[in-house]
TrEMBL record:
Protein name as it appears in the record: GMP synthase [glutamine-hydrolyzing]
Function field: Catalyzes the synthesis of GMP from XMP.
Record organism: Microbacterium laevaniformans
Alphabetical keyword list: ATP-binding, Glutamine amidotransferase, GMP biosynthesis, Ligase, Nucleotide-binding, Purine biosynthesis
Gene Ontology CC: cytosol
Record domain GMPS ATP-PPase: where: 2-200
UniProt KW Ligase keyword: yes
Pathway(s) the chain acts in: Purine metabolism; GMP biosynthesis; GMP from XMP (L-Gln route): step 1/1
A molecular function GO annotation: ATP binding
The EC number(s) this enzyme carries: 6.3.5.2
Residues shown, of full length: 202 to 527 of 527
Reactions this protein catalyses: XMP + L-glutamine + ATP + H2O = GMP + L-glutamate + AMP + diphosphate + 2 H(+)
Quaternary structure and interacting proteins, as annotated: Homodimer.
Lineage: Bacteria, Bacillati, Actinomycetota, Actinomycetes, Micrococcales
Binding site for ATP: 29-35
Length: 326
């Protein structure tokens, strides 16, 4: 029966057979699938693999460090980080429309990746061993979904950052193609990856860019990052991670409301908590979080995060609401 050690051994053999002495490129997103597929390929072919991580500035607090420090320490993967924060912010300046944001983020991601890829490909070719392979963290449900998408409506365009240009000249290495998410997590744990990555709840490719209702700016990202970190910390502390599918934290940057703090009137922004329970994200219900946990999160956010004077709870199921606000 199913055993993560066997799956790892089997995949390592397959990857070696496919790749031989060829070089391999991988894009890490910070998510579970790319982290586990990259670690598997690294176990199989070592430094024939180079991983690229694009920091688009839309990550949550600590995520870049998780990849650069903890992930690299636990795997030994050779990692190149591309700091594209300014490029993304400039490209997003003045844009409020959600679909427009997704398109820009998807496009800029591909550009940033292509830039470093060109350098790596040239370097490898000069050394006489060209990069011929690309790792993809495709799971079994992705395979099924893209095979027969009959009747599926495209409600939002889902750009998977970590999703790559279509005209790449690489052969794909997809070691997770037969696996489900919980199996991928088990393999990640067996490989010794950090729990913060392996146990991570779903997070959209466009990141915090689609959790700021309104224009994305550096200032607003900082506010949202702080609020999100508090919510995550308190939910984890209360032992609720297993009960929640994910909990988007959203900044209503275009809304202000009046508040009072100390002796003064404030005029700040609301933060929305959107905890949901779900099996597959296709439908979801809002999670009935304990009042004391909600209260703790609300107090901390309004006390510790500047410009936020109100915390509101989203009590909408999906449908009619989507999980994300954009
Ligand atoms: P919605 O908001 O459509 O979200 O109910 C369903 C699931 O998909 C995630 N999501 C995205 N993931 N790129 C992604 O990679 C996207 O553009 C995107 N939009 C939503 C969302 O977090 C939830 O898990």
């Amino acid at each position: 029966d199913w055993n993560s050690g066997n799956v790892i051994a089997e995949q390592v053999d397959r990857i070696r057979a496919q790749v031989g002495t060829g070089r391999v490129l991988s894009a890490l997103s910070g998510g579970v699938d790319s982290a586990v597929s990259t670690a598997l390929v690294h176990k199989a072919v070592g430094d024939q693999l180079v991983a690229v991580f694009v920091d688009h500035g839309l990550l949550r607090k600590g995520e870049r460090e998780q990849v650069e420090n903890d992930y690299v320490a636990s795997t030994g993967v050779r990692l190149i980080t591309v700091d594209a924060r300014d490029t993304f912010l400039n490209a997003l300046a003045g844009v409020s429309d959600p679909e427009q944001k997704r398109k820009i983020i998807g496009r800029e991601f591909i550009r940033a990746f292509e830039k470093v890829q060109a350098d790596l490909v040239a370097e490898a070719a000069a050394e006489g061993e060209p990069i011929r392979f690309l790792v993809q963290g495709t799971l079994y449900p992705d395979v099924v979904e893209s095979g027969g998408g009959a009747g599926t409506a495209n409600i939002k365009s889902h750009h998977n950052v970590g999703g790559l240009p279509e005209d790449l000249q690489f052969e794909l290495v997809e070691p997770l193609r037969t696996l489900f998410k919980d199996e991928v997590r088990a393999i990640g744990r067996e490989l010794g990856l950090p729990e913060a990555i392996v146990g991570r709840q779903p997070f959209p490719g466009p990141g915090l860019g689609i959790r700021i209702v309104g224009e994305v700016t550096a200032d607003r990202l900082e506010i949202l990052r702080d609020a999100d970190a508090i919510a995550r910390e308190e939910l984890t502390k209360a032992g609720l991670d297993g009960e929640i599918w994910q909990c988007p934290v959203v900044l209503l940057a275009d809304v202000r409301s009046v508040g009072v703090q100390g002796d003064g009137r404030t005029y700040g922004h609301p933060i929305v908590l959107r905890p949901v329970s779900s099996e597959d994200a296709m439908t979801a219900d809002w999670t009935r979080l304990p009042y004391d946990v909600l209260s703790k999160i609300s107090n901390r956010i309004t006390n510790e995060v500047r410009e936020v004077n109100r915390v509101v709870l989203d009590v909408t199921s999906k449908p009619p609401g989507t999980i994300e606000w954009e």
